[in-house]
Specification:
With 446 residues, the chain is α/β, with parallel strands linked by helices. The chain has 15 helices and 16 strands. The protein binds nicotinamide-adenine-dinucleotide.
Length: 446
């Protein structure tokens, strides 16, 4: 069954009961945004606090398949109704919710977000936007069709240093860019072979609802929930999906990239259960106004990444930041550490001071805060303000879907180590037909 068909079945009863208009479609500002939160443990707890720190937000509902996560969130928002099944929540609060925040593991992003959008809700969805290319395309399509306010949870997108890097690159500080190298040695999540046997399901946890549309399997402690799912092929998108979507965001945005032509992932052989723990992924893109005729994005992850490379050598033998991106241009290189550190200009092997006033004379970018607790809510508040009609979301699904799709193509390339895949975006197909089976998921009814 296609995911949208599956969701239509679960929605049939709900949609007859109401016909709400989107806030944007109402064409006027609102005084209060009523939010429902799906997944309130882990990052979801942080998302909840950041959204709720906006003075015009009322948290009306909390949903989690783990009652411990609900208990913690409820202790801060005791007036919010609580649920363990988002379908029940959305149906029963159809007229009491304006916006939905989705902070579940990746495989449940699309089912939950699509159901909310089909019900005309604005959606803030964590990164990467979804688990499959078909899902990101559906999400983009529905958001556009219904003119909904949407935002992907890439909060650093709204940070000063990233906006400054975008401005510098687009102002031509290093000329046209021919290549970006980006890296993250982050290696979190379960990384063993497929486990045997089953463990008892904890009484606070609903395994069936956690699996959602994914295939049924025995529960195993410390393999899936909480947080361990991210390197497993049925639930997460590996380190490329996890960190690549953050670190590639600025190059993707600044260089006005769209769809890659080819993707090659050099990694170990796939085992069908977990993603390879070390990847070097090379994407080629057609040129844009900010790049040379052809452009290459190279991603390095895994323990010790990146391997040393002359393009990554820093002046005075300085150590590379743990995670980040290096832009290679005609006139020099721009280093963008991830995150909360300013970009640095390197010309002929030496750091050169950047005269920011020259590029931002009216101080439109503001100042660097370098305090995560103060900076992170900006992206969430922008979403809330967009819902209330007073701002515009900067990472809407129209953008986030293309960025995520690009990332997911690299994840699929990991199934075919060292093979160059050719992407036909118009038809949403690889030239290598054996890769097309990974563009969509299984969509179990649960
Ligand atoms: N933007 C960021 O900086 C950032 C940082 C970390 C994680 N994330 C993203 O946040 C999401 C969650 O990651 P995490 O590390 O918090 O994972 P996690 O496993 O620690 O937490 C997920 C939470 O969602 C709940 N959940 C799972 N399925 C659910 C369902 N169907 N309905 C309701 N609740 C459900 C779980 O019980 C848990 O409380 C992922 O998409 C991840 O990529 C983003």
């Amino acid at each position: 069954m296609k995911k949208r068909d599956f969701l239509k079945t679960s929605l049939a009863a709900a949609t007859t009961a109401f016909l709400p208009k989107t806030i944007m479609a109402m064409g006027k500002t609102k005084d209060l945004l009523r939010t429902a939160h799906i997944g309130v443990g882990g990052m979801g707890f942080s998302d909840l606090k950041s959204i709720a720190s906006h003075p015009k937000v009322k948290v009306v509902a909390l949903c989690d398949v783990d009652s411990n996560a609900i208990a913690k969130a409820s202790s801060i928002y005791p007036d919010a109704k609580t649920f363990k099944d988002y379908r029940v929540m959305l149906k029963s609060l159809a007229n009491e919710v304006d916006a939905v925040v989705v902070s579940t593991p990746d495989h449940s992003h699309a089912p939950a977000s699509i159901m909310a959008m089909e019900m005309n809700k604005a959606v803030y969805c964590q990164k990467p936007l979804a688990h499959h290319v078909s899902e990101v395309r559906d999400m983009r399509h529905i958001a556009a069709e219904k003119k909904l306010v949407t935002q992907m949870g890439i909060q650093v997108h709204s940070f000063y240093d990233y906006k400054l890097a975008t401005l510098l690159i687009q102002s031509g500080i290093i000329g046209k860019v021919s290549r970006v190298r980006a890296w993250s040695p982050k290696n979190w999540g379960f990384d063993g072979p497929k486990p045997n046997g089953a463990d008892p399901i904890p009484s606070n946890f609903d395994w069936n609802l956690w699996l959602g549309t994914a295939e049924k399997r025995p529960f195993k402690e410390k393999v899936y929930h909480p947080g361990n799912w991210r390197k497993l092929v049925d639930f997460g998108c590996g380190t490329l999906g996890d960190m690549g979507v953050h670190i590639f965001d600025t190059p993707y945005n600044a260089l006005a990239l769209d769809v890659p032509n080819t993707i090659k992932n050099s990694c170990r052989k796939p085992n069908g259960f977990g993603y390879p723990e070390k990847n070097e992924v090379i994407y080629t893109f057609p040129g844009t106004q900010y790049t040379t005729k052809n452009f290459e994005w190279v991603w390095h992850d895994g323990k010790g990444a990146p391997d040393s490379h002359k393009e990554l050598r820093l002046p005075d033998k300085e150590k590379l930041p743990l995670q980040g991106a290096m832009f290679m241009g005609e006139k020099g290189r721009l280093l963008l550490p991830h995150f909360m550190q300013p970009p640095r200009l390197i010309v002929e092997g030496k750091y050169v001071a950047i005269d920011i006033k020259k590029y931002d004379p009216d101080n439109k970018l503001g100042i660097t805060v370098n305090d995560y607790e103060r900076d992170a809510p900006k992206h969430y508040h922008q979403f809330v303000d967009a819902c209330l009609g007073t701002d515009v979301a900067s990472a809407p699904f129209s953008y986030a879907s293309r960025l995520t799709e690009t990332i997911l193509l690299g994840v699929i390339a990991g199934r075919f180590p060292n093979k160059t895949l050719h992407w036909d975006s118009k038809n949403a197909r690889f030239k290598e037909s054996e890769a097309n089976q990974y563009l969509t998921g299984k969509n179990r009814s649960f």
